[in-house]
Fold 4-hydroxy-tetrahydrodipicolinate reductase.
Amino acid sequence: MKKIRVFVAGASGKMGQEVIRTLLKQDDLLLVGASDTRHLGMDVGFVVGAPRVGVDITGPLDHEILIETRADVLVDFTNPQSVLKNSKTAILAGVVPVVGTTGLDESEIEEIRALVAKERVGAFLAPNFSIGAILMMRFARETAKYFPHVDIIEMHHDQKLDAPSGTALKTAEGILEVRQPMVQGHPNEYEKVKGARGADIEGIHIHSVRLPGLIAHQEVLFGGLGQALTIRHDAFSRETYMPGVMIGIRKSSELTNLVIGLENFLD
Ligand SMILES: NC(=O)C1=CN([C@@H]2O[C@H](COP(=O)(O)OP(=O)(O)OC[C@H]3O[C@@H](n4cnc5c(N)ncnc54)[C@H](OP(=O)(O)O)[C@@H]3O)[C@@H](O)[C@H]2O)C=CC1
Ligand SMILES: O=C(O)C1=N[C@H](C(=O)O)C[C@H](O)C1
């Protein structure tokens, strides 16, 4: 059996470590490289609390290392400042980026789309790899057909860099596909303190909470006549994302187009 060769960027981070621990247990996937700004030169097994693996952490990603390691897929869990460069480096090296890092803006996604088309090397972007969160987004989209008044509260650990979360933005995007344009709330409402109503995505308000102790949580609140409906998802650990990341790697290794969202790979 030919194994899929996987390179992990952000290997020393919270998600990167979890991905490596999971990868090491898969028969059909082979960890061939790992990069990070931390633990340089250290065997990645020791970084994640496992026995020696024989792959050392290298510094920020470049073309040569991807060619040298003959990677098929680059898994990126870095940060919003590094992810575009890493994805482009991968595509130009003929390696499919599987991107969990959030914070890419529209123009950056378009840049990836254009490069994918030019190089005929695929890319997979997933703002959320948790199956439960995918269902939350699906149910929210369905609910908005009947309950168009909606606010989103996303709650994360206090080390998160981007706000609103990629998941909250994708939830709003899904709702906007089915909801007619409308004014929500009082037409004359105003903010006494800037930001009080949260981020406004075409009339949908997203409120971002950052607190120690949290991992990743989201509530989608719908209000109707004399009733309210709340759809909530909680990620209690980063293991939550691992089945989705493994699906993403397996389904992406021979991809030649840009795919956004794990829902596209679920049966
Ligand atoms: N799609 C999904 O399901 C999920 C997505 N995420 C997203 O994944 C990303 C990572 O999250 P998390 O693991 O919590 O973050 P961490 O900060 O714990 O880890 C990121 C790691 O990447 C390193 N890094 C930064 N730049 C580079 C680079 N150019 N090359 C290699 N490594 C680099 C960081 O180093 P340094 O600290 O020195 O910058 C850090 O060690 C975030 O964008 C988060 O929103 C998180 C959970 C689930
Ligand atoms: O930073 C995180 O932790 C997470 N980021 C993703 C997002 O921005 O939606 C996914 C999940 O919420 C965890």
Remarks:
- Residues 102, 127-128, 156, 160, 165-167, 216 surround LZUJQKHR (ligand 2) (CB under 6 Å).
- The chain has two domains: 4-125+239-265, 131-236.
- The chain has a mean pLDDT of 97.
- Residues 106-119 form the longest helix (14 residues).
